[in-house]
Amino acid sequence: MKQATLHQLRVFEAVARHNSFTRAAEELFLTQPTVSMQVKQLTKAVGMPLFDQVGKRIYLTQAGEELVKTCRQVFEHLDQFEMTVADIKGLKQGRLRLAVITTAKYFVPRLLGPFCKRYPGIDISLQVTNHEGILSRLNENVDDIYIMSQLPENMEVDTQPVLENPLVVLAPIDHPLVPEKRIRLERLATEYFIMREPGSGTRKAVQDLFDEHKIALKVRLDLGSNEAIKQAIAGGLGISVLSVHTLALNSPNSQLAILDVEKFPIERYWYAVYPKGKQLSVVAQTFLEYLLTEGKEVAHKTVGARLSGLVNYQD
Ligand code: PGA
Q: Which atom of ligand 1 is nearest the CA belonging to 102?
């Protein structure tokens, strides 16, 4: 490995991540023959094949898998070193890699605005993905911080509660239940229900509540998008339970009402999560501190403003 260069490792990692020489070449602004040559030289230095080719597809070999892990550790340490040097110079500089679960996209970008203004030297990459996507990224230690509500069950993680994530029952504004108070949970079983897709944290929380009370919902359809569910409610397809954070400013909120149902809102939290014992970079640590202090205030203001326009919302 003494002959391997950092450049070769970066090229190899990009090929492994994209599972494609062409895409890696595009990302790195290199030609494909250059990428192939770099991987070939690295393979020689390792002394074992890094990829298997089956038809047009490439697969990492066991040695390749191990090298990807090593590459990520090396890059992470180098990034941390760069950030530490910037910190010594009195600058907060570097890259913050965030991955957030689908529903968190309603408030995390809002929090980034003031943060980026304060620390213009920090670049941010934000991935929005589903629960499965977050778990696999967390497992591979791809990002600095993850934001989610439903915590991973089979992984050792450090968590910090960042913000409330109440789930509320939403109905079309002209629904007969809108004026009613303290609606009984059983009453919802007579309504058509629109559910988030399997794997969603929101879905799990809703199912847990109704299972606990042995109530079967009349699920009319599953939808993998909060926005599609809101449109479906407004269109009269049924009622649903979503996070209040989904009630963004430019959606058909004026056509939706929050129902006053017993056991609601379901109290949940957004957590900042990272692998247990992970040494956070200076930049990630700065962001975490921001999240737990001013970030909370920014989010409260935004969410509060969204809710005040809705029928039946009591703070
Ligand atoms: P979602 O919710 O998966 O329904 O978007 C977030 C979570 O519970 O982690």
A: 5
76 within domain boundaries? no
Q: Tokens representing 117?
A: 């203004």
For residues 110-149, one letter each, b for 16 or more C-beta atoms within 10 angstroms of the residue's C-beta and e for the rest, the string is bbbeebeeebeebeeebebbebeebbebbeeeebbbbbbb
Residue 268 alpha carbon, nearest atom of ligand 1: 8
Residue 126 lies in a domain: yes
Question: What's the whole-model pTM score?
Answer: 0.74
- Which two tokens mark 16? 């492994």
Tens digit of pLDDT for each residue in 222-262? 999 999 999 999 999 999 999 988 886 555 557 899 999 99
Q: Does 86 reside within a domain? A: no
Does 202 contact ligand 1 (Cβ within 6 A)?
A: yes
Asked if residue 83 belongs to a domain, the reply is: no
Q: Is the CB of 226 under 6 A from ligand 1?
A: no
pLDDT tens digits for range 211-225: 999 999 999 999 999
Residue with CA at minimum distance from ligand 1 atom 8? 201
Percent of all residues in the chain with a pLDDT value above 90, rounded to a whole number: 67
User: 138 is written with which tokens?
Assistant: 């967390």
Helices and strands, counts by H and E, the chain: 10, 12
Q: Which domain holds residue 237?
A: 167-267
Let me know how long the chain is: 315
User: Cα separation of 106 and 96, whole Å?
Assistant: 19
Cα of 242 to ligand 1 centre, how many Å? 10
